[in-house]
Amino acid sequence: MEIRTLRHLGGAWSEPFPDLDSNQTLVLAFAATSYVDQPSALAALAAAYPTSIVIGCSTSGEIDQTEIRDESISVAVVRFAKTRLRHAHTTLASASGSFAAGAALAAEVAADDLRAVLVLSEGLHVNGSDLVRGLNAHLPPHVIVTGGLAGDGPRFARTWVLTGGVPQVDTVVAVGLYGPALRVTHGSQGGWDSFGLERKVTASKGNVLYELDGKPALELYKGYLGERAAELPSSALLFPLALRDTMNSTNSVVRTVLSVDEQAQSITFAGDIPTGQYVKLMRANFDRLVLGARGAGSSASGDHVGPTLSLAISCVGRRLVLGERTEEETEAALELLPPNTTQVGFYSYGEISPHTAGRCELHNQTMTLTVLSEAA
Asked: Do residues 40 and 158 both lie within one domain?
């Protein structure tokens, strides 16, 4: 397994494209949203790897080792020695088609020796929970599914996914990785604190929340935000919701706002908000966010030997909270991984990973790592 990285900055590539093209090469490219308007750099990258699988997405910040950039492309070129690859993509016309999109991708990459699936989705019109359910329903439990939702900074205006070297809107892409030589580990942790009253979801449909405790959801949410309500939806990244099945449940997932509807007084989230479940507002604890990233690194450290790739996907909300100190979490995530680890990734609108073990889930506001290597 060989790994090389490069970046596009200031209108130029940092170095010549590494000579690693093959049908066992995966090229991961994470780029600012604006590259969809000037796709020549992405086209040049794809042209340099005609037999490789070239995927990626728009971001809310590009990760290159521990450094975070904007208005750039961060690339990892990975040529596997023993692992086979297969590429699939599908169009997502609306959030209601998310389960079918996940099922279609799963069916296309399924095989007896499938070990892992990397998934990248457009970030604004997807129901991430349904996408994950579609994947889980058609893949065996031992297959590790990880990935994330494309970003667009704090703007929430447009996202795209790179498939075949071409940026596409309303698209979900998956890559299957096959064979016993592949070593894959993962970790996903948050670091947010809940506060305030816990409220019951009394009206919702899929990932759209209409009422809490019988009252309009957006009206209540704005009451919590105060002056920050004028900055919606971006200010909502600082105050996600913790969702749990019952008031006695000890497990919860985090949900982040994608958009609001003033007329309907509703809030659209990256994943489901089922009627009858309970939500509580959350806010950031700076030190715990960094410790969460370190915990993700600890969970993903595994027994990797030789060249190792870490795909780091963190939520844009974490970046807004951490501000100028955001690189502390990318450093913390990398710190406990093998010393020969190469890290690339992006800031997202949602993360896909198992929590600790078992099937994958949609997460928000986490640092999520997928670590890949090959047995000698």
From this structure: yes
* Distance (Å, whole) CA 292 – CA 247: 24
- Quick one: 9 and 106 in the same domain? yes
My answer on whether 75 and 147 are in the same domain is yes
Which residue, 284, 302, 322, sits at the end of a domain?
Answer: 284
Q: Write down the pLDDT at residue 103.
A: 97
- At 153, list the tokens: 């900074």
Residues 101 and 249 in one domain: no
| Co-location of 54 and 98 in the same domain | yes
Identify the domain boundary among 284, 306, 323: 284
Write out residues in the chain with pLDDT < 50, as ranges. none
- The pLDDT score that the predictor gives to residue 279 is 95
Q: Same structural domain for residues 117 and 182?
A: yes
Same structural domain, 85 and 164: yes
**In angstroms, rounded to a whole number, what is the distance separating the alpha carbons of residues 262 and 158?**
20
Q: What is the pLDDT of residues 200-258, one digit of tens each?
A: 999 999 999 999 999 999 999 999 888 989 998 888 888 899 999 988 887 788 898 88
Helix axes 128-137, 98-109, angle to 10 degrees: 30
What local confidence, expressed as pLDDT, does residue 305 receive? 92
Tally the domains of the chain: 2
In terms of C-beta distances under 8 Å and separation of at least 24 residues, what long-range contacts does 89-92 make, across chains too? 89/161, 89/163, 89/164, 89/168, 89/171, 89/172, 89/173, 89/174, 90/171, 90/172, 91/170, 91/171, 92/121, 92/122, 92/125, 92/126, 92/170, 92/171, 92/172
Domain with 227 in it: 192-284
Which pLDDT value is given to residue 194? 86
Question: Which of 18, 374, 5, 371 has its CA nearest to residue 188?
Answer: 371
Look at residue 99 in the predicted model and tell me its pLDDT. Answer: 97
Residue identified by tokens 């670590």 is: 371
Check whether residue 7 and residue 83 sit in a common domain. Answer: yes
Interatomic CA distance for residues 68 and 75, integer angstroms: 13
Placement of tokens 């799963």 in the chain:
106
Q: What is the pLDDT of residue 12?
A: 96
